[in-house]
Design goal:
By secondary structure, this protein is an alpha/beta fold. It has a single domain (7-277), classed as NAD(P)-binding Rossmann-like Domain (Rossmann fold, 3-Layer(aba) Sandwich). It is 47% helix and 15% strand. The chain contains ten helices and nine strands.
């Protein structure tokens, strides 16, 4: 292979920039794209945690704490300087927090929002200028089935994922005309260490929530490592969806995610229909429905 052919081939190989690669989905996505022969920017708060991934292919290992804007800007600049651009941004970095709403500590909740919402938003802000310039790109935001429906003890975690859903839905309406696609990934329980390591827990338990929030926390901790979801298959599904000619805006992963989402749709439809007359009666009598304007 000539040097010119080699360079041409490399220029056609997509560049994936992945946050939170030390464990879980981030590690598996990075591993999968590198095994496919793609170029990957592999990031972690501690680069030593991901050095082994660099041995799998053309990887640029960078230090990145998504809560630090200077690190985010430096990492994106390094990636663009090294590879010429970023084709796919995977916003995977995230943490959890277990507590009933009333039990929740404000500092812990704010820290989770800083990672799950503002950290994700920060990465979008620093990557979009390059994607807009080239009129192409793909942003993959890791949400959760918990971004579509809530569960006891996960109220504030759900709130971060609901925020990611709302942000992403507006974002794709803004950037798709510019050639940039956006996809939400909504997994159910997968065999990552999210429930075992990445989720903090309240120290202020209230007895009245023993059979709701505390019960769910115990189940989540006990089931950690035994969930139905396979992170390897999840990584393969995400890449397949990104490369599809008609990619989804929302990608459910896992039977529990799919069943839970359909159940939520049915619940909403039933409740909306039951209160339709009251809902429609809140307009001025001569108002024209927006759908017919």
């Amino acid at each position: 292979m000539t040097s010119a052919t080699k360079n041409s081939k490399q220029s056609e190989t997509p560049v994936w920039f992945i946050t939170g690669c030390s464990t879980g989905f981030g590690r598996q996505i990075a591993k999968h794209v590198l095994e496919l022969g793609y170029r990957a920017v592999v990031t972690s708060r501690d680069p030593e945690d991901v050095r082994d991934l660099a041995e799998l292919g053309d990887a640029l290992v960078l230090k990145l704490d998504v809560t630090d804007r200077s690190q985010a800007e430096a990492a994106v600049k390094a990636a663009e300087d090294h590879y010429g651009g970023i084709d796919v941004l995977v916003n995977n970095a995230g943490i959890g927090y277990f507590a009933a709403v009333e039990e929740s500590d404000e500092e812990g909740v704010r820290n989770m929002f800083e990672v799950n919402v503002f950290g994700l938003s920060r990465m979008i802000h620093v990557v979009l200028p390059g994607m807009r310039k080239r009129r192409q790109g793909y942003i993959v935001n890791l949400s959760s089935i918990g971004g579509l429906r809530s569960f006891p003890a996960l109220g504030y975690y759900n709130a971060t994922k609901f925020a990611v859903e709302g942000l992403s839905e507006a974002l794709w309406q803004e950037v798709e005309p510019l050639g940039i696609k956006v996809m939400l990934v909504e997994p159910s329980g997968f065999r990552t260490d999210w429930a075992g390591r990445s989720a903090n827990q309240t120290e202020h338990q209230i007895a009245d929530y023993a059979n709701t929030a505390d019960k769910n926390i115990r189940q989540l901790r006990a089931n950690s490592g035994n969930q139905n979801g396979d992170p390897v298959r999840a990584a393969e599904a995400i890449v397949k969806a990104v490369e599809s000619p008609n990619p989804p805006h929302r990608l459910l992963l896992g039977n529990d995610a799919y069943d839970g989402a359909i159940s939520k749709l049915d619940e909403l439809r039933d409740e909306f229909a039951a209160w339709e007359a009251v809902s429609r009666g809140a307009d001025f009598p001569d108002a024209t429905p927006a759908a017919t304007k």
